[in-house]
Design brief:
This is Methyltransferase. It comes from Fusarium falciforme. This protein has one domain. Helix content is about 50%, strand content about 15%. The protein has helices spanning about 20-35, 45-50, 75-100, 105-125, and strands spanning about 55-65, 130-140. The protein has a two-stranded antiparallel sheet with strand order 1-2. The chain is flat and about 60 Å long.
Length: about 140
């Protein structure tokens, strides 16, 4: 994964300066400012928390989750449609919150960013995806 690239593409349809390309930067900077990192996958926070809690045999599965209906594979297309729906339901509030945390954004800049993000996600021309990771482990039997 590229540093701070939370939404990526394998075919370079997500440019770093695009709204989708800036999504991760906003959250990494905002999370850092709040002392609450949004780098759960990269920092292996799930693994570390399970280990600290005494779990053993920690395993993980990491996979790409598409955003939108662009994938040709039917199952991935369905996953992407749900991801898009979820993002569209949540991103306006999340962006308003994060830009408030970061400061320096005018109301107009926020609305322009949200409009660009919505347009990019809905266009089908941006083949974005993000990492999802599932972690599981076993609690040892007490001796």
């Amino acid at each position: 994964m590229e540093p701070s690239a939370y939404i990526q593409s394998d075919d370079n349809t997500i440019e770093p300066d695009s709204a989708m390309g800036q999504w991760g930067k906003i959250f990494v900077e905002g999370g850092s400012k709040m002392g609450r990192p949004f780098t759960v996958v990269e920092d292996e926070l799930q693994n570390k928390a399970l280990e600290k809690a005494g779990f053993v045999d920690i395993q993980e599965k990491k996979h790409k989750s598409p955003i939108g209906s662009w994938p040709k594979d039917e199952k991935l297309r369905e996953i992407g449609q749900y991801a898009q729906l979820s993002m569209e339901q949540d991103f306006e509030g999340l962006i308003l919150f994060m830009t408030n945390v970061l400061g320096g954004w005018s109301r107009e800049e926020i609305q322009v960013y949200i409009t660009h993000l919505r347009r990019e996600i809905r266009s089908g021309k941006k083949h974005g995806w993000y990492w999802q990771k599932v972690v599981w482990a076993r609690k040892p039997v007490s001796a």
